[in-house]
Amino acid sequence: MLHLADATEFYRREAAIALEVVDYVEARDESQYLLKGGFEGFFFLHLPSILPFLPTEPVNALAKALFILARSWAYILYEHPGSWTVLDPDVLKEWKKSWEKISEKDLEEFRRRDSTPHSEKAYRTAVDASGKVDDKSCRDPGARRIELEIAFEQNTNYPPEMRITVRGEPAVNFMIAYIRKLQGVSLTSDDGIILDNLHAMFDSVTQAVARKFLGLIRSRGRPRTISERAALLMYHERKPIGLVARELCTKRTDPAHRCDTACKHGIKKVAKSHFLNLRREVRSIVRSGEKIRHSIFSDFPLE
Fold first, then answer.
1. Stated pTM of the model
2. Are 248 and 289 within one domain?
3. Residue 74 lies in a domain
4. How many CB atoms lie within 10 A of CB 63?
5. pLDDT category, 296, cuts 50, 70, 90?
6. CA torsion sign, 170 to 173 to 179 to 180?
7. Interatomic CA distance for residues 121 and 139, integer angstroms
8. Mean pLDDT to the nearest integer, 62-81
9. Hey, is 295 helix, strand or coil?
10. Strand, helix or coil at 111?
11. Whole-angstrom distance, CA of residue 251 vs CA of residue 244
């Protein structure tokens, strides 16, 4: 039984999403949760490994852990529609057939050009302070230099494949992000300033590959969601809505703009959407397909 009455509202709301994993998390009241059905063993086995990345306040850490591990448990129990094993013969047959989209003449031309010394398979550049690929940054003494490379499978007896390689500091940053993902936790300020611009760096690297190697027109991506930040400020740090609106309003850089009631209402709506989106994510996992019973049950007995 987990008692989360003293957690802040933000973490209590996240913990409540664990109830979507029905049959394994039961609410005894507004702030007490009973873990059962094998989930309790999974929870306490993995709790120590994620504790260093959770909030420092014990009850908030426990609430956050309940959400993170319930979501992981849902992934273990349920399989998404259309999921398949890469070694499925039908999938391999489908991939091999896709080679027919390239004519033999084009394929031979590609092989000839790709084997020449001047083939543009690697591209050396650098990233600026914001994490964006910038060729001019190569001249800066403290530049973070990187090398991007692209390669394609050429043997039509194997599935078609494109590989993008990143060499340099960004590769380490991406690796850290992947490790956090494996641990079931999000990147936090504890990971250091080096990760602050990781999203911008990833977007910029992929756009550089698209421009340099693929000749694709750079498209403008949607701005990153501010819902989690708004929810943290409102429900965890308990900041007044006026201060939150002034910090997160998309028009705050406009000198003529003054945040009004509409801005505050919009920020409140955005903050609530954080919990709604998390709930939809877990709910979709649970409802997305056939329930898969894994051998994990034998590893986490009910006793």
1. 0.49
2. yes
3. yes
4. 28
5. very low
6. negative
7. 22
8. 81
9. coil
10. helix
11. 13
